[in-house]
Structure to design on (114 residues):
């Protein structure tokens, strides 16, 4: 389980770093020739909450220590306890992030607007 926890923590750190890079470093030229950031409002809530309150800042007032590690074929790694920072599972959280980025890129390509 220690190895599974390591890879779960790594996913949330890397996913959060990916979001930060998308928000600040990706600039594209829109059809009207303006330079825009298509992902400046990208905010995967589950990735943010789990990284912030269950992994990175568990010692803060809103944070909680992970006391439950579960694994499911359909959800992947699930970190607990179940509360306001509920983890739907690594697979679901990764899918939500991918879909959000894909939709933003598709919208930009189709309309030329972020």
């Amino acid at each position: 389980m220690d190895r599974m926890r390591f890879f779960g923590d790594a996913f949330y750190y890397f996913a959060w770093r990916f979001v930060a890079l998308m928000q600040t470093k990706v600039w594209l030229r829109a059809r009207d020739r303006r330079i825009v950031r298509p992902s400046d409002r990208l905010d995967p809530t589950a990735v943010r909450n789990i990284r912030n309150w269950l992994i990175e800042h568990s010692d803060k007032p809103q944070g909680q220590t992970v006391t439950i590690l579960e694994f499911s074929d359909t959800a992947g790694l699930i970190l607990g306890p179940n509360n306001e920072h509920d983890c739907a599972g690594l697979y679901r959280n990764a899918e939500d992030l991918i879909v959000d980025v894909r939709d933003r890129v598709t919208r930009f390509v189709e309309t030329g607007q972020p």
Remarks:
- The chain has one domain: 2-109.
- Residues 2-109 form one domain.
